[in-house]
Amino acid sequence: MAGTITFEPIDRYNAFLATCNNASHGSGKLAGVPVAIKDNISTKDIETTCASKILKGYIPPYDAHVINLLKAEGAAIVGKTNMDEFGMGTTTENSAFGPTLNPCDTSRVPGGSSGGSAAAVAAGMVRMALGSDTGGSIRCPASFCGIVGLKPSYGRVSRYGLIAYSNSLEQIGPLGKTVNDVSTLMSVIAGYDRHDTTSQDKPYNHTPAAEIKGLKIGIPQEYFGNGVDPDVAGVVKKAIGRLEELGAVTVPCSIPSMEYALAAYYVTTSCEASSNLARFDGVRYGPAPDTKKPWHDAYTEVRSAGFGTEVRRRILLGTFALSSGYYGKYYAKAQVARANVRADFNRIFKDVDVIAGPTMPTVAFKLQEKSDPLSMYLADILTVPANLAGIPAISVPCGKSEGMPVGLQIMGRMFEDERVVDVAYAYEQAVN
Ligand code: GLN
Fold it and tell me: Which of 93, 142, 373, 406 is in Cβ range 3.0-4.6 Å of 395 for a Cys bridge?
C-alpha cells in the first residue's frame, strides 16, 4: 500500500475483504477486521521502511507490541502504509515512495505523517489503521481526510517496535471512520508493556458514551487567532455550539506558552532524531558501506544516499543544537518552554474538563503547495501542544470548508483518553 494510492484495486480489494471476513481469525475483538499499519511500526517478516530509502529491504525479525496485540484479537493486517520519511512531515510528500493523494480530492495532500493510514481508511480500503503521532501525525491526516484519529496519552500505548523519531513525544494511535472504531482499536492496543520503559499500567476498557451535560470545555483564544483560516475557525465554532446544545458549558481560556511551542517542538524533535537516526549508518542498519573507503567517506555516502532532504535537515539541526556551547541555548531552553506548555494545560484543566479547537489551521493543502519548510512547520501549531504536554487529543470531522473536511480537536487531562473519546462521540452522534 506504500506509494501513490490508486483506486483500481478496490474491486480486487473487496474480493480480498470477503475472504478476510470468511477467514477464521479466531473470535477476538477484531476478528477478520482489515487493519492497515503505518510503515514505521515493525512487522515480523514484512518489510518496514519508514518510507526511507535507507531501510529499503529491511525485514524486522520481530513484531511491535501493538502488532502482537492486534494479532491476538484476530485482526487481518492487510498492508503497510505510506508516510513522511521517519514521520517527518505534514503532507506525506516527504516519502521515498512518492506522495499519497487525499481520497476526498486527489489534487490535495492527505496530511501527514500518517497520510497513507488516513487515506486508506477514508478510501474504504480498510476499516481501521494504526498511525503514530509525534506532533500531530495522526490528527492532521484524520482532519484532512475527514476521519477520526486519536493521539493517546503518552505512555498509554507501548512504543516497543515503533521505529523512533522523537521518543519523548510520540505515541502509536488508532484511525477509523467512526469514534466507535477508534475506541475499539484503542482498547486493543493500550496497556502496560515491560519492553517500553515509559509504558504505564493504564488499560483502556471503554465503551463511548454520548452524555456530556454540564461538561466544561475550555476554548483557547490562540486556537482561533492569527494564522487560523477564518472559515475553518467558523466551522469549528459551530461544532462547539452543537456541544453547547448538548449541555456542555464553554469557558474562554488562554495558552500563552503557545508562542514558543512550535520552536520547542522542532528543537526537541530534531535533537532526538539526530540521536535516534545515528543507527542508520550502513553497519547496524542500511545498505552496506564501501569498506575500501575511509570510514567517514563510506558513512557519509550511505547516509547521504539513504536519507531524504527533510530528514537530513533535521539531523543537521539537531546535531547543531546539541553541540557543545549550543546545548544550553537551544535544547535546554526548549525543555523550559515545554514545561511551560505543560504548566499552562495543568492550570486550565483545574477549571475545565476538556479543551476544544480546530485540529489544523486550514483544510488540506494542494500537492506541492508548501514548498518551504517553515510554512510547513507552522501548520503544526495546533497539534504540537498536546504532544509537548503528553495529554490525549482526538480529531473528529465537524464539517467542511472549500468542500474539504475540517477536524474538531478535543484535548483532555493526562490519562483521560476516555473523556476525549466521549466528547467526540457525543458530537458525532448529534450530527449523524
Ligand atoms: N509534522 C510534524 C513533524 O514533521 C509532526 C510529525 C509527526 O507527528 N510524526 O515533525
Answer: 142
**The whole model's pTM is what?**
0.94
CA of 114, closest atom in ligand 1: 9
Per residue in 232-258, is it b (16+ CB within 10 Å) or e — as a string?
A: bbebbbebbebbeebebebeebbbebb
Tens of pLDDT along 341-395? Answer: 999 999 999 999 999 999 999 999 999 999 899 999 999 999 999 999 999 999 9
Domain extent at residue 113:
1-432
Cα-based distances in Å from 165 to 114, 168, 252, 368, 413: 13, 9, 35, 24, 25
User: Any residues with CB less than 8 A from the CB of 189 and at least 6 apart, and which?
Assistant: 66, 69, 70, 130, 157, 158, 172, 173, 174
| CATH number of the domain where residue 246 is located | 3.90.1300.10
Looking at residue 192, the DSSP 8-state letter turns out to be: -
Distances in whole angstroms, Cα of residue 255 to Cα of each of 141, 223, 392, 418: 24, 9, 17, 23
**pLDDT tier for residue 1 given thresholds of 50, 70 and 90:** very low
The total number of structural domains that make up the chain? 1
Ligand 1 pocket, residue 94 CB under 6 Å: no
Could you report the per-residue pLDDT of 37-90, keeping only the tens digit for each? Answer: 999 999 999 999 999 999 999 999 999 999 999 999 999 999 999 999 999 999
List the catalytic residue out of 42, 113, 143, 199. 113
